[in-house]
């Protein structure tokens, strides 16, 4: 699969950022289809299509099916059983048929190591068509201009405390992104700078951008330049938030217990947007060089954000936690002694006299894989977890978990690529046992091996990588 | 002066991180003095010396003299008058006598361009001796071990809204650093890892570091490794905070109006610590390569921190400001239309319907040099400003200003240096008109020139660089 992804990246570069080819198959489009002469049309798949008359297409009922593996695995009932066989740890990958994933995407997962009954992870791969909601300028749409946008989408969802959040995200997050992009269809296809202000209704006059400035010498005199790229980033950021809010609203009716890390890639108009909320990781291998496309959000990495929130909103700590960090747990008998600490502002350490409230559990503790927030969870961003409480307490974790991703942008048109170049997405299960360089150097013969590993190379894979440890 | 600094850096490298030479002169030590065989002793200068019987040496009265230029300029009354001559814009630099600044430090400043009556900036250059407060382990001090530490110190203080804060910082901040280091004298000289917990009183037994761990599998089972370096960072961070708190306490009695950006360098035990709170900048030029040693803290750079504070503590916005950012000022007639915005979580932009509260002033507005926080101030970190209010309002600015610096560490023992290598500190007045590369390539003949510029090269200089614009 690695080869396939490598060639896929090369294929994309050779297309020079042109609109992606129209998929033959709605759910599993064939990447070998020729680029269309006209702008791409909507895939025929109802789930991936923006129904123009649908008020809330991201909430369609059929999108919330029962537990399963990613649809592109095309698992038979027997395959689904094997995917849950903890003893065998079978590796799952898509069948090597003519219905390949777009961009020659590769995929591999192994069943988990017994932590949970089901594999709580999910993945998604779609080609999504975005039809403009309306003419944002108020003018009638010109027939000659493209009426929609198409983006490629890949998502990895590392579930925890249940698989529903990851399932829901894998079915709906790309639709939230599509919803956010609907208003931008015309703007993104117009080379002029995006309008800062839009009319409330189509047909009403919009505001001029430079005629309302106050005081030429004041800080109001300038207006920020907003790029097309930053609009896409904002659309993805808000899509994550809306996805999370939907989980909060519907968590009882649809049993959306648990949460998930989300790592998604959007390819749109020549640029790759990598959005990460959690501890998964994406890298691009370009001419042997590794380009990090994400960073992991853990209690250690986000210590100061968490401490600042606990400091400013102490009620969120419920009298059970202290926002200060100590290098180890403070003992009652150490009251009055001086221990190293750091607060929300510090990167260094200093000694402080231990007081009674320092005996509370620290908001952030531990190191590496053992690092925890509120002694409960090892990631600090993601979707869901609206019911998550501190162990043996009613204190909610969610206020400290952020659903916002960090989005990095890679302009494919700016770089030379070779056939071996590849974009790799993996959850922590992969990166715990495989370094960036190992992934880079892994090929069909050099890739990690384990029980049941298929004879080909591999690419993105959800959390449970136990099979690769052997 | 550039050459002198270049040779000074080379000199330091050749000493391999050994304790700095004992200065001959207390205030302006001669860098050519030979390194001592024994650990360095305290300079004779009362201001720079840690009086062992002084309970609060950082608060001595003589340290708060009236307005003047940096003492190392050794200005005569006539020179002091010329330093205030806005028309002539004389460049001030230390006299080229035998009493050179340590490390062959160079210094240049020009008078300001009329923004204020006095030059509001200050600078400081000291060799500071730190005597241990007591034996931290509780055991009697061994006579054979070094009893103190010496650090080199350089500070640039870019004042605004009055010069008192910069003056006070230039006289006292290094003493706060010394105070913070007093507890660490023995620990920093002991190669074993710093103790995590110290007894409350000398002689009392300290806690063992690994015998109080709870639950070997929990996040408590690990204890963080704390380095000597991170203790020095913590000491500098807290020194900035204590300096700021002192300004708050004494602002009425000592007329500490205004505030200042602070950029300081501490050289201690082979490492250079660069601490920055404000929009000054430090770079190291090493073999022609430029290594940034700071970043500027402006409303644009700290937008998300400021917005998060305004979001979590809306009372700090007083109903006058919105925590949202807009690319330009929203007009009342645009109510109901949709304008681009971003909140504390977003890096991208999205459209939102304009509501009544969006008409408030944005917390952060403008770009580049015109960027302002609360329409008032263009920096977001620094010391002082405890009386600063929003223009035409009683709303305090201070809660959004942070006194904490970012500290970067450069290990001089890890790199090869050549005689041209140099550490350059400059306030925004320098960097507004001179790029990193220009500073790097500037020599006696190639340096920036302007009215009154001296015929030699230059190094660190406070804000008013109008003379270099010509």
UniProtKB/TrEMBL annotation, chains A, B:
<feature type="compositionally biased region" description="Polar residues">
    <location>
        <begin position="461"/>
        <end position="470"/>
    </location>
</feature>
<dbReference type="InterPro" id="IPR036457">
    <property type="entry name" value="PPM-type-like_dom_sf"/>
</dbReference>
<feature type="region of interest" description="Disordered">
    <location>
        <begin position="436"/>
        <end position="470"/>
    </location>
</feature>
<dbReference type="InterPro" id="IPR001932">
    <property type="entry name" value="PPM-type_phosphatase-like_dom"/>
</dbReference>
<feature type="domain" description="PPM-type phosphatase">
    <location>
        <begin position="104"/>
        <end position="470"/>
    </location>
</feature>
<feature type="region of interest" description="Disordered">
    <location>
        <begin position="1"/>
        <end position="58"/>
    </location>
</feature>
<dbReference type="GO" id="GO:0005739">
    <property type="term" value="C:mitochondrion"/>
</dbReference>
<dbReference type="InterPro" id="IPR015655">
    <property type="entry name" value="PP2C"/>
</dbReference>
<dbReference type="GO" id="GO:0004741">
    <property type="term" value="F:[pyruvate dehydrogenase (acetyl-transferring)]-phosphatase activity"/>
</dbReference>
<feature type="region of interest" description="Disordered">
    <location>
        <begin position="78"/>
        <end position="103"/>
    </location>
</feature>
<feature type="compositionally biased region" description="Pro residues">
    <location>
        <begin position="36"/>
        <end position="46"/>
    </location>
</feature>
<protein>
    <submittedName>
        <fullName>Protein phosphatase 1J isoform X3</fullName>
    </submittedName>
</protein>
<feature type="compositionally biased region" description="Low complexity">
    <location>
        <begin position="47"/>
        <end position="58"/>
    </location>
</feature>
<dbReference type="Pfam" id="PF00481">
    <property type="entry name" value="PP2C"/>
</dbReference>
